[in-house]
Amino acid sequence: MPDEFGQIAELFLPLTRGAPEAIGLRDDAAVIPSRVGHDLVVSKDAMVAGVHFRPDESPELIARRLIRANLSDLAAKGAEPFGYFLMTAWSKDFDWERRKAFARGLEMDGIEFDVSLLGGDTVSTSGPLTLSMTVMGWVPAGKMVRRDTAQVGDLIVVSGPIGNGWLDWGLGQGGFLPHPRLDLRERLREFATASADVSDGLVADAGHVAAASGCGLWLDLANMPLSRRARSWVEGQPDEGLARLRLATAGDDYQLVCTVRPENVTRFGLSVVGEITSGGIDVRFGNQQLDARTRGWVHR
After folding, report:
1. What residue ranges define each of the domains in the chain, with the CATH number in brackets?
2. pLDDT digits (tens, 9 = 90+) for 218-237
3. Could you tell me the pTM of the whole model?
4. What is the pLDDT of residues 25-52, one digit of tens each?
């Protein structure tokens, strides 16, 4: 196996795609030029084997889930991806072949989402594989969609099916690869009053928006969009309301939950699942009141 600098040259230098800001990964820093009329949006996420992905998951899939989870944060802010920094703490079992496969996964999604590696760090650990990524994106000046700007009376909308992440990770059905909703960034900047990505669970992340905005909310999970396989799983459960609550509190979906004024909801074109209120958290399935005290993923 090559030494640290050999690994960087072979695994990571191609991921810069020639971006001049990366300085060929020959330095301990990158240079990010300003873009006139734009703000630079920066976000960071980490993943740990056994917590965020199965230790035996394919390295390509681990890499693609890492970059997509991070890009989802930019999507929620209405930002256009620009570049990323990567930290890898390789576990002892993550050998050279697996590291090369990991880099291939990043290469695939770097091309798909037009985003380049600009720098980072690589170390080893006696613990589980640990990964961290910092992503950057551009947004027109003053147009980043914040989390704390929802208003009472705003409708809560979600960008797509909820629950597939848990069906993959929680039930081990496999095959789920999130797709960050970068396609919505222009509509978000035009219509959304607040936004977050659904990483901790729909109930939790809608609650984060409401709490940051000093408001409450109600959600009706009867209106929560489901994929075909999620709907099939729900139909096989004894209580549909509780089954939907399980999916709505599991997380790892990387859809967007946004708020929008009622007069704009048709033009926004997403599924309405609730409303911002003056206080309290009210989660229901039609007329069935649901106990949402366990609202979603909690990091401890």
Report:
1. 4-140 (3.30.1330.10), 155-289 (3.90.650.10)
2. 999 999 999 999 999 999 99
3. 0.93
4. 999 999 999 999 999 999 999 999 988 8
DSSP 255-295: -EEEEE-GGGHHHHT-EEEEEEESS-EEEEETTEE---SS-
- At 29, give phi and psi (nearest 5°): -150, 165
End-to-end CA, the chain = 36
Q: Are 50 and 42 in contact (CB under 8 A)?
A: no
Strand partners, 81: 137
Taking alpha carbons only, the member of 181, 160, 178 closest to residue 168 is 178
Contact 296, 232 (CB under 8 A): no
Q: Which residues pair with 83 in a beta bridge?
A: 116, 136
CB 250 within 8 A of CB 298: no
Other Cβ atoms within 10 Å of 228 Cβ, number? 8
